[in-house]
Write a structure and sequence with these properties.
The complex is a heterodimer. Chain A is an alpha+beta fold. Chain A contains 16 helices and 12 strands. By secondary structure, chain B is an all-alpha fold.
Amino acid sequence: MTNIFSKLYNNKKEELYFERDMSPDKSRKLKANIDENLNIVQEYLYDCDDVITRDFYMGLTPKHKMSLMYIDGMVQMTTVQEDILKPLMLFARQFSLEHSVGEKFFDMVKEGLLTAGDLKETDNFGEVILGILSGDTVLFIDKLEKALLISTRGWEKRGVQEPSTEAVIRGPRDGFTETYRTNVALVRRRLKDPNLKVKTIKLGRHTRTDVGIMYIQGVAKPSIVDEILKRLNTIDISCVLESGYIEQMIEGDWLSPFPQLRRTERPDVVAASLVEGNVAILCDNTPFALLAPTTFLSLFQSPEDYYERWYIVSMIRILRFIAGFFALTFPALYIAMTTFHPGMLPTDLALSIAAAREGVPFSAVLESLIMVISLEVLREAGVRLPGPIGQTIGIVGGLVVGEAAVRAGIVSPIMVIVVAVNAISSFAIPNYSVAISFRLLTFVLIMLASIAGLYGIMIGLLGLTIHLVTLKSFGAHYLSPFVSFRFSESKDSLIRGPLPAMEIRPGYTRPQDLDRINDRRHDTIDKAGDERADE
Amino acid sequence: MLTNNDLITVPQAVVLIILTILEIGLLILPREVALYANSDGWILVIIGGFLVFIGSLAMSTLIRRFPGETFIEISSKVIGKFFAYAIGVVLIVHLTLATSIVIRTFAEVVNAFMLENTPREFIIISQMLLTVYLIRHGIEPTARIAEILFPILIVPIFAMYMMAIPKADFTELLPVFNTPIKSMAMGSLNTMFSFFGIEVLLMLGPYLQRPDKIYWTMFVSVGVATLIYLLVVIITFAGIGVENTKTLIWPGITIIRMITAPGRIFERLDALAMALWTIASFTTASSFYLTGAITSYHLTGAREFKFFIAILFPWIYFIAALPPNVIATETLIYVVKVVSMILGIALPFFILLLAIILKKKGGTA
């Protein structure tokens, strides 16, 4: 993979920004005549009724013709009126202007008159058109081969809300929104570090979506950052509507059922991962950020893991792994035990299973397939329907139909238990993408178990292990830290060690700066301090 | 830490060798030592393990003397191209045979204890496909798999044998030192054969990240394997008695049949033990298969080793399907074991001796 990329990008390694959009070329320069400029812009933006053009002149006489262009609904009208139109049209009349023509006039307008916070000059149509389409306001001035791009972006947007897919009991409640800048700010607020770098590129021929990568210089390994930038730059698709497009375009092994980038809605997760040496990819128009490199372990973690005390977290983590195991294998194990190895079960249990299965017309395999598939259908139905009806589906499907099916003798009650435990276990996995791929693999294991019992399950699990062991996410082993094992890393693996003991950052990101705790201040907090506080 | 894709670290080498050794020995070692030394059998395990370690010193020294060179290169330097290539061919045949008998034994045990009606060919083919799926990724991933599977395999095996302790009668281990020296010696030699698999290190020499730590690697791997064998032999003797052990084909598994898990979660553990057995057999078969492919790759100087995986595949299948019954398999196992010790201990010793006499040394790697 790396070879292909380095071959592709040998010559343009330094280049960060690629022009693959449909907007006009940057080489087309602005003209001196304002009407000519406006005509050229109209050439591009004809039949775009949402583009507003406001012609006006500065001062008392129509000597300085100017023109504003912006898209209705994508700009903050207060900025346009108070910081652009008002100074130019009203304030300018009250004083005699120092300069009335040429470069100096332009600088006076730019530096002395406009009160908008963020503006930049441009001399070509490429930037002008893209600026207008992104929500900036363009100011054309007559007799000048330049224009001003004034940042006035602002549109109707959702506020910062609690993320719905990653709820926590303890921890911050703010989640990302659909606005890229807000999301970057949410992370920046947590990391007031000049080394936190944000690089923005635009992806998608039609969408021109802002995609930013964030990393902490001096912690994240430069080769990983470069690799991610390289892969992002190879993306040349028509649209990027969600970070899922990016994820699928840059992941190393698209045949794998496992996600090779971690997605999150939570700025605190992004901040914590950045400090561990990850790189975050933020995408406009979606609250989901991507984190790379990713390990299998990190998909089993919740942000709360670091906020709660370590005993509790360690227990919960072990529980999650048990849940993960059941989510993967429980129906398959049931089939293997009942059809191939009934000798393994305690006699009483074997008898009660046999009694419960009496009158059930189907084999255990068919029975479990019916149940698992109908459960998936119920889950899908519940997701799509609006909240209250979704719950009704759960009750009707789960309780009423399940009970009726057992009464009617189509499935055995034990099968209902097996499938229910399997489903609940899969919901205990914090990451939805993994939970879903586990449920997919359950079907494979059911098939294998029906062919060769426990041996089939072992073949399946070994195959899965081989796949996971050979899988890499941006150069990091997916099963890190269990491969190339180092004891110091085991403190944050199946269990989570006490924070004062976690002295180094995880190794899979190969951070440049390994120390998590710089001076061992926790050593000075001793029992004596507690006693002093008593007095 | 990310390791170089071609090199294996010291812990990886250790677990790879342990998992290569642990396989057929676990099944039949208790019977063999019981036949030679009755209740002194467990002493044979210790002596055998010690002898294997001593024997492996020659191989280790050879790898240290020629760092970064393949065994074929080393032997061409010392004994000339013709003999080196002849040895290479013998090695390939041996490793192919070893892969076959490991898979064949596994299929037989599965047929006996887990899936009585499943065709043996299905088990052989499925196990081989799984192996191919792993080894086509190369040496380092195979070592990584060993690293992951080692605790998954060892911890439950250990727990399972521990469960037999309440039923065990340790007086079976008495009397001690009651065996004549001659049968002790023969028995120890025979026990050494249960450590077959150490010869894979010969081919992995150039892929070791720290060839300077090879003595330590060998010491830990043979030591751990000896301890596990010792545990199995002692528990088997105490659990089913020395005399019964002699009459069973696979006493190591039979003892698991009589164990009931505490709390009666499982009535019988043999199917579970077979599931673990899948792991043990898989790791052993994959490291033999991989070294076989790598030897062919060294021998021919081809650009890709994956090609040889495909070439060896039908041979391994045919040899695995060949023996008509368990007795024939046992004979084949014995041949492979003896050849293994010759290739793993006698041959390196011979080449090392010649290298010292001829003053041949590896380049500064």
